[in-house]
Amino acid sequence: MTGQRGFTLIELAIVLVIITILIGGLAVPLSAQIQARRIAETNKTLEEAREAIMGYAITHKTAGPNPRPYLPCPDSDADGVEDRDAGGSCTQEVGWLPWVTLGTAAQDAWGNRLEYAARPEVTDSAIGFHNLTATPTPAGWHDVCGNQTACIPPDIAAGVPVVVLSRGANGWGARNVNGSTLAAPTSTHELANQDNDKFYVSRAPSKPGDAAGEFDDLVTWLSFNQLITRVCPAGGCP
């Protein structure tokens, strides 16, 4: 009888090396696909937040004979509910998206809360949109810029009343769903999105070590004209 011959150790080693190379080649594309899916999911969440904010303004108006719409306030304590004082003003201009109030997703695809900034000219429930029939002076409102260290002049959007953003995959500076705040960002442009100076950066992502610095924030906004066109389609709020 002829004896059965098995694999030698050298042959097994060669097979393992080949399998390792194949798995390594597949792992990078798979990781990239997962990341791309999370980015797409978060962009969709941001878009849904924009729509919900406009929907809120359509259904919320000041009391009295001449009702005017107003926008939700930021959430200041991360419970998902807008925070407004007894007089109708927001307790702060920048905070987290009030997802409970709006009925939207609670976080981005990486499990972090979305951030939300809204100007008091459009959030005060006692006054509402008032005499905003023409584009307001951008000074003091939020500006969105590209690859700049100073937003002068704004090269993407000027005089923006609403900004919503995700801290992206790295999550630097974000508050996660467990209530923990992650380490602060170190790159110039990610820091610009955290310092509450009304200057926001929206640009293509870059990796750590790149000349432009690490950046993966996802930013969306509502321009003044978009807001008025949707909320006051008759040509302006009274």
Extract low-pLDDT stretches: none
Radius of gyration based on Cα positions: 24 Å
- Please count the helical segments: 4
- Helix and strand pattern: HEHEEEEHEEH
Strand order of the largest sheet: 1-2-5-7
Largest sheet: 4 strands, antiparallel
* Class derived from helix and strand content: alpha+beta
Describe this structure in words.
The chain is 29% helix and 12% strand. It contains 4 helices and 7 strands. The strands form 2 sheets. It has a 4-stranded antiparallel β-sheet.
Summarize the structure.
This protein is an alpha+beta fold and 238 residues long. The protein has helices at 9-59, 99-102, 188-192, 224-231; strands at 94-96, 115-118, 142-145, 157-160, 162-166, 199-201, 218-222. It is built from four helices and seven strands, in the order H-E-H-E-E-E-E-H-E-E-H.
Keywords:
alpha+beta; elongated; 4 helices; 238 residues; three-stranded mixed β-sheet; 12% strand; four-stranded antiparallel β-sheet
Question: What is the strand and helix layout of this fold?
Answer:
Elements: H1 9-59, E1 94-96, H2 99-102, E2 115-118, E3 142-145, E4 157-160, E5 162-166, H3 188-192, E6 199-201, E7 218-222, H4 224-231
